[in-house]
């Protein structure tokens, strides 16, 4: 009897541990910047396709239903609230609209339940302004903000090994450090046409590379950067 009791105890503990690791392995990620064309939808879609996340969006007229299976796509109006998604499913929220206007309910409900918020910012005055403003609006609802310094290009005469050392990335980081604080991670993502191709091919960057040697070569840098970004999220927020 004692033996049985002990054994059950161990089984219970193992079960609890299993459930714990099972649940903490999952993530809810928001991708948001109030600025359109920042790259939210391509980033969110690549995550959803590559890692089999559900995609939740407050843009009712999107073309995502051709790309993702119906059961993995949640779409609602900007002035509606997202339901609390249960623990144990991976969700990426692709948000548009303004938190100070009609899109407040959808944005606040998504951001509040997310483990982490990605704010894509490219090196252009309007986008940087909008990005900083966005981060300030988000912080009361979620402290886990990561800036994706995106659409990075190599300017004339520039040489660097790491895209984090590009003028584009350094400028974005300098503004974020100054306006928000040095603790905000800024991760680089170069400009690439592949972010249009994922919608044409309806496959993630990695999935395109698996079947095509030329794609494997062409997309190696951007794919590596995207992997680094996702590993960072998994390490810190899953
Ligand atoms: N590194 C990148 N990250 C995100 N988008 C990129 C990147 N490089 C190029 N793009 C392009 O920038 C555009 C931004 O996408 P868009 O849907 O307009 O963004 P949003 O959803 O923020 O409005 C797309 O055409 C995409 O292909
Ligand atoms: Mg979009």
TrEMBL record:
Keywords tagged on the record: Membrane, Transmembrane, Transmembrane helix
Transmembrane portions of the chain: 14-31
InterPro entries reported in the protein's UniProt record: P-loop_NTPase
Gene3D superfamilies in UniProt: P-loop containing nucleotide triphosphate hydrolases (3.40.50.300)
Name of the protein: CobQ/CobB/MinD/ParA nucleotide binding domain-containing protein
Organism annotation: Shimia haliotis
